Amino acid sequence: MQITYVSETWPETTYEIESDRFGSYTIRADGRVIKRVTAVTEYLDKPKWGSKKLELNAIEDAKAAIARFRSPTG
How high is the pLDDT of residue 26? Predict the structure, then answer.
């Protein structure tokens, strides 16, 4: 899933958030990768084929990470 996000903290910067069904996500600003998080490959109760819930949780985690940035580019 890929979305465009404008933070309340940095309204002048548009972020692109891309997540997958395993909980990994990538945050980009102006075409540059700002942050990339790779999900743990195996943990208790994680479906091996991925899920929509993990994908949506990754988007929320990315939004929370953007809110913690000290500058618009990380």
Answer: 97
Give the single-character DSSP code of 68: T
Give a yes or no: residue 14 inside a domain: yes
DSSP 19-65: E-TTS-EEEEETTEEEEEEPPPS--TT--TT--HHHHHHHHHHHHHH
Other residues' Cβ atoms within 10 Å of the Cβ of residue 5: 14
Residue 73 inside a domain? The answer is no
Query: Cβ(15)–Cβ(32) under 8 Å?
Result: no
Confidence of residue 41 (pLDDT cuts 50, 70, 90): low
Query: What is the torsional sign of CA 62, 67, 70, 73?
Result: positive
End-to-end CA distance of the chain: 22
d(CA 11, CA 24): 24
